[in-house]
Design a protein that fits this description.
single chain, mainly alpha
Length: 142
């Protein structure tokens, strides 16, 4: 997976790759470049410490991997691709990523008043947020 991001929208650069879940599985298995995390930092405005903690790495190790052009292991790569997918869905529902970013920072009723950003640290948490976004999309807020 090589995505050069020169565009204003980081999400747009990855969007074509997020259409198919089978592609995501294959891409995660093949290896997602660590540079994708830095693209996510730009997109999400979450800091490097957030992603390093999610992947059980130090920020120094993350920087070293980035400088060395390393790839993530399949589980870590899957998390990163799922977050891109989550932001794509959030942008669609909220109209832009800024509004979605505001939403992930506040407790959400449909998530048991948990803050979505805190649930993003695991694959299951990302799935819960995606399920909530789908409910919001279809107007099922209960």
């Amino acid at each position: 997976m090589t995505v050069k991001v020169k565009s204003k929208s980081v999400l747009w650069a990855y969007e074509k790759h997020l259409v198919d879940r089978f592609w995501m599985v294959e891409e995660a298995a093949a290896g997602v470049p660590v540079s994708a995390i830095f693209d996510l930092i730009q997109l999400t405005h979450l800091n490097k410490s957030f992603f390093a903690g999610m992947l059980n790495l130090s920020t120094k190790t993350l920087d070293r991997y980035h400088q060395g052009g390393k790839q993530l292991n399949p589980a870590s790569g899957e998390l990163i691709l799922k977050i891109f997918s989550l932001f794509k869905k959030g942008e669609k529902i909220f109209g832009n990523t800024s509004e979605f970013q505001k939403w992930i920072e506040k407790p959400a009723y449909g998530l048991g008043y948990k803050v979505p950003k805190e649930l993003m640290k695991t694959s299951a948490g990302i799935d819960l947020i995606m399920d909530e976004l789908i409910r919001i999309e279809y107007g099922n807020l209960a």
